[in-house]
Amino acid sequence: MTEKPLITFGKVRKSYGEGEARVDALAGVDLTIQRGEFVAIMGPSGSGKSTAMNIIGCLDTPTAGRYGFMGVDAGRLDRNRRAVLRNLYIGFVFQGYNLLPRTTAVENVELPLIYRGVPHGERRRLAIEALEQVGLAGRQNHTPAELSGGQQQRVAIARAIVTTPMLLVADEPTGNLDTARSHEIMELMTRLNNDLGLTIVMVTHEPDIAAYAKRTIGFLDGHIASDEMNREAA
Questions:
Q1: Which pLDDT value is given to residue 1?
Q2: pLDDT tens digit string along 155-214?
Q3: Where are the alpha helices (DSSP H) in the chain?
Q4: Cα–Cα distance between 164 and 212 in angstroms, integer?
Q5: Where does 7-229 sit in CATH, by number?
Q6: What residue segments make up the domains of the chain, in order of their start?
Q7: Per-residue CA distances from 9 to 13, 14, 40, 216 (Å)
Q8: Calpha distance 78→8 (Å, rounded)
Q9: pTM of the model as a whole
């Protein structure tokens, strides 16, 4: 029996404004992403890529059409049910690491587990394991100010994966990093995709970063303009 796709867009439209002022950020997009894929989304400003990412991450809903996540019509869920879905199944990594500045690395990673009501001892163990997975063993008691930018992004990735999500949504994850640290982060994300089977959807404007993904989708004027497999990706 064929496994259902993790993500499906069926004629997804997202509009802002009304009448002559209406703008279609997404203009009837069809899209399928299977479990275990690593997908890069690219496109110029205003192309619809960020709108698509927000819908995929259940941060926004379509104006029309269907967004399916794990077979559920997630676009029709109310705000509270979408929040539950995000908490259970989706991890997020952003360009700005969004770490609490006066909180240690391990305490930052524990935050999603606190929201789930995981007991202290168990969440501490899981957070330390997640930090080890991203190459930060022994750094759990460092605050963000004591870590480099690349290390801070690793903490953010550990926080995103500590709940063992089905999907990791990454928005310009290397945007604040130099070239060397950017490639280190992308090698880490590639390993998480390959070793854990973690589905990753990443927005980026950099072709060399997109090349780490196994598939690149290009948006233009609210439509998918290209959808290609990357030969260079591992």
A1: 45
A2: 999 999 999 999 999 999 999 999 999 999 999 999 999 999 999 999 999 999 999 999
A3: 49-56, 79-89, 105-116, 120-133, 149-161, 179-196, 207-210
A4: 22
A5: 3.40.50.300
A6: 7-229
A7: 9, 12, 16, 16
A8: 19
A9: 0.94
